[in-house]
Amino acid sequence: MSSAKKPNVSVIIVPLFLITLVFFGFLYHVYLNDAAVPILPYYELTQDNCTPYSLCKENIGIPQRSGPVLEAKARRLPRALIIGFNKCGSAAWRSFLSIHPDIVSPTLELRFFTENHKLGLEWYRSQMPLSTSNQITIEKTPRYIRSVESLRRIYEFNPDVKLLVIVRNPVSRLQSEYAHEMAKLPETSNISFTDWIYRNPFEGFVTYWSDYASTIRRAFSVFPHHQFLVVSEEDLEKDPVSVVKQAEMFLKLRPAVTNDVFVFNETKGFYCFNTSHPFFPSVLENHEVDVMSGCMIETKGRDHPSLDANLLHRIVNTSLPYVRDLFRLIHKQFDWKYYNKYIQEAC
Ligand SMILES: Nc1ncnc2c1ncn2[C@@H]1O[C@H](COP(=O)(O)OS(=O)(=O)O)[C@@H](OP(=O)(O)O)[C@H]1O
C-alpha cells in the first residue's frame, strides 16, 4: 500500500497565479503606465556616483530608449546656466528653452552662486524641478556674470558647466532699464528718459549698460570660450526658434523645437507659445508665462520711451567702442539698429 500523498494542487496553482500577476503587473508598469515611473526623493538616488561638487559628466546627448527602463525622476543640479545679462531677454530665453522635452528649469532666479551660496548645495538641488537623467536642468540668474566670486564658485561647482549669455543693443537695454525703474514708482514720480539718463554721470552710466565685453572677457578668464554661447535679444525677439536651435546644438540636444511651437502675438508684439502645441503643457508651471495667452507675463515686454535724436547720438557714440569690442571678442556680429552703419565688418 503506497503511503505517497497526492500533492495539493493549490500549492502549485497559487504561487503560479501570483508570479503571473506580478509579471503582468510589471509589464503594465513599464509599457503602459508612464505615470507609474517611481519618483524617488533625490537622496535615494546614486546620481551616477557623482559627488556634490563633481557633477555627472555623462554625455548630454540624444536619449536612447533601448528597452524598458525604470527611469527615476530626481532633482538634478544644473548642467547649464544662463548667467547674463539682465534686461536682455534672459527670462524669455529660459522659458523658450524649457519647452524642449530634454530641458527642465526652475522659474525663480535662485542666485545660488551669489547671495544664496550660504544655503548650501542641497538647498540648491532641492529647488530644481524633477527630471530624468536624459534631461538637463538649466538655471537662470543673470547677475552671475557680473560677479567674479560667483564665476569662481560656478567653476568649483562644475568646471564643465555650459554657460549661456544673452546681450542686447545698448540703446534698447537702457530703455528697458528705464521702463523697469519707472514701473516701480508711482506714475506721478515718473521722469522722462532724458532726465533719467542725465541724473547719472553720463559716460559711466552708459558704459555700465553697454560694456558687455569686459564682463564676458572676465568670464573667459575663468572658463574656456567653448563653454559659452552668446546670443542676442534682438534675434530671440525676431526668430525665437533660431535662438533655441543654437542652444539645442550647443547643449547637444536632439532638435525638438520647431516653428509651430511659437506664434507671433500682435497684441503683445512678441512671439509667445502656441498654446495648442503638444509641448505647451510643460510650461504650465512656469510662472513667467501667462497660461491663457502663452505670452511672457506683463513685466516682460514693456513700452519703451521715445528717444531724443541728440541723446540717441550721444548714447551710440559712447557705446560704439564697447559694441565693437564685444563683436571682436565673441567673433560674432548682431544686427543692432543704430550701430550697423558704423560696424562694417565683423571681427
Ligand atoms: N518673446 C518675448 N516676450 C517678452 N519679452 C521678450 C521676449 N523676447 C525678448 N523679450 C525681452 O525680454 C526683456 C526682459 O529681459 P529679462 O527677462 O532679461 O529681464 S530681467 O533682467 O530678468 O528683469 C523685455 O524687455 P522690455 O521690453 O524692456 O520689457 C523684452 O523686450
TrEMBL record:
<keyword id="KW-0325">Glycoprotein</keyword>
<feature type="binding site">
    <location>
        <position position="176"/>
    </location>
    <ligand>
        <name>3'-phosphoadenylyl sulfate</name>
    </ligand>
</feature>
<keyword id="KW-0808">Transferase</keyword>
<dbReference type="InterPro" id="IPR000863">
    <property type="entry name" value="Sulfotransferase_dom"/>
</dbReference>
<feature type="transmembrane region" description="Helical">
    <location>
        <begin position="12"/>
        <end position="31"/>
    </location>
</feature>
<keyword id="KW-0472">Membrane</keyword>
<dbReference type="GO" id="GO:0008467">
    <property type="term" value="F:[heparan sulfate]-glucosamine 3-sulfotransferase activity"/>
</dbReference>
<keyword id="KW-1015">Disulfide bond</keyword>
<keyword id="KW-0812">Transmembrane</keyword>
<protein>
    <recommendedName>
        <fullName>Sulfotransferase domain-containing protein</fullName>
    </recommendedName>
</protein>
<dbReference type="Pfam" id="PF00685">
    <property type="entry name" value="Sulfotransfer_1"/>
</dbReference>
<feature type="binding site">
    <location>
        <position position="271"/>
    </location>
    <ligand>
        <name>3'-phosphoadenylyl sulfate</name>
    </ligand>
</feature>
<dbReference type="InterPro" id="IPR037359">
    <property type="entry name" value="NST/OST"/>
</dbReference>
<feature type="disulfide bond">
    <location>
        <begin position="272"/>
        <end position="295"/>
    </location>
</feature>
<feature type="active site" description="For sulfotransferase activity">
    <location>
        <position position="87"/>
    </location>
</feature>
<dbReference type="InterPro" id="IPR027417">
    <property type="entry name" value="P-loop_NTPase"/>
</dbReference>
<feature type="binding site">
    <location>
        <position position="168"/>
    </location>
    <ligand>
        <name>3'-phosphoadenylyl sulfate</name>
    </ligand>
</feature>
<feature type="domain" description="Sulfotransferase">
    <location>
        <begin position="78"/>
        <end position="278"/>
    </location>
</feature>
<feature type="binding site">
    <location>
        <begin position="300"/>
        <end position="304"/>
    </location>
    <ligand>
        <name>3'-phosphoadenylyl sulfate</name>
    </ligand>
</feature>
<keyword id="KW-1133">Transmembrane helix</keyword>
